[in-house]
Each structure stands twice: as C-alpha cells, then as structure tokens.
Amino acid sequence: MSEKTTSYYVPDSSPWPLLGSVGLFLIAIGGGNYIQQSTSKVANDGSMGGIILAIGVLWMIGVMFMWWRDTIKESIGGLHSDQMDRSYRQGMLWFIFSEVMFFGAFFGAMFYARWLIVPWLGGEGIGAMTHELLWPDFQAMWPVTTAPDGRTTQAMGAWGLPMINTAILLTSSVTLSIAHHALIAGDRAKVLWAQGATIILALIFTGVQAYEYVHAYRDLGLTLESGIYGSLFFLMTGFHGIHVVIGSLFLIVTFFRVLKRHHMDGNNFAWEAAAWYWHFVDVVWLFLFITVYWL
Fold it and tell me: Structure pTM?
C-alpha cells in the first residue's frame, strides 16, 4: 500500500454524482407509480412503476459499485491525507444526521396522528363537531383497525416476528462491535468471522421482515390501504428495511476489503463508516419496535 500523502487531495471530475441522481430519480418515480398501481382499484392500468423501480435499483447498485471502486483505489493509492480523513468523518456524521431527520419526519407523523388526530376524530376537545360530522361511529383507539367503509384489519403484534428481528439486530450490533475491537487489535481472522456473522444476521433480518409482510397481507389484512396505521406501518418499517439492505451492502464491501487485507494498517475509516451506519440502523429499529409494534 502506498504511503499516505500529506497534502489535500482534490479528485478528478466524476460522473457518479450525476448518474446517482438519475438512479434516485428513477427509484422515486418507479416506487411512487408502483405503490399507486398496487393500491389502485383499476387492474392493468398500464403503469410501468415496477419496471422503472427495478431499473433504478440496479442502476444505483452499479453506480455505488463504480463509485466505491474509485474511492478504494484512491485510498489504497495513498491519496487520502489526514485532512481528507477528517472530511470523510464529518461528511458521514452529517449524512447520518440527515437520516435521523428523515426518520424523525415519520415518527412525527405517527405521533401527530396518534395523539392529536385520533382523539379529535373520537370527539375529544375541539374535535366534537368533527366526530359528529365525519365519523360518528369512530372510537379513539390506537392502532386504528377500522376504516370508514367498515373494513377491519389486525395490528401487528410485538412479541412474534418483530421481537425475533429485534433480537437479531441487537446480536448483530454485538458481533460488529467484536469485529471493531478485533480490527483495532489487528486480529484479521476475528474480524472476518465476527463481521461475517453480522452480515448473516442482517440477511436473516431481511428475510424475516419479508415474511412478516407476507403474514401482514395474507393473514392480518394489514396493507397500505389499511388507513393511517397501515400506511405508517409499511412506510416506517419499509424504509428501515431499505436502510438495512444498504447497510448490508456496506458491510459486505468492507468484508471483502478485509479479505484483501485492507483496513488492517489503520487506514480503516470506510470500515468504521459501515459500522456507524449499521449501529444507526439498529437504534432506529429499537425506536420502531417500541413505538410502532409495542406501545
């Protein structure tokens, strides 16, 4: 590995930010159309949402691969100075902060619906007239399992699959912490088995959540059309699931880098960034488990 430079490195012009924006645009358009199509009462409405979404996801995976490839070449080429390392750390911290604000919006929507809208619809306080005019049979309770048209659904319990996934994620944080300490100590073998265990647990979590969605649709009648509770349930857990997949990819990339004996010489911020992101994903899940499933 080349000696680290002492000057600030300015990379060449890169196409990946622009191409990444294109991929995100495709995901946004495709995802929105796919959800609209899946909840539409009109069958075969001609929407290409699913195809556009798949193209956007594959596009983003390709962009991430090429972008990370270039960054890894810069790192092992000794082009990243201490100042660049500080810039990366600050950038990752701001990125995680933006993700906190992203999920904060969803938690805010849920709290607003649960503690303000539901009591108003039930006739409490200033909502007495609203209750009589809009939904006189509404009972102020959470989760809302009855729609205005009389359709009912069941809420997802906390002590089945969600509890299993909570145990899985907490265990994955432990194994990743073991890997982190082993990385600092220079124990490559221990890093590999502990990080490998973390990746396996991450994949199991994703599989369990996919089965949970099947169970929700098939057995509980809980769908995106199940009122405010169903919409928030799938939005909050679904976006968290997407972050789990991204974090898993991050961990897989750094795992293969350790296999190639990267990160073992103290130049390991990419590995630490993956660990930061994964611990963030775990903390968000704990809040989801408590507020969405348990309370």
Answer: 0.85
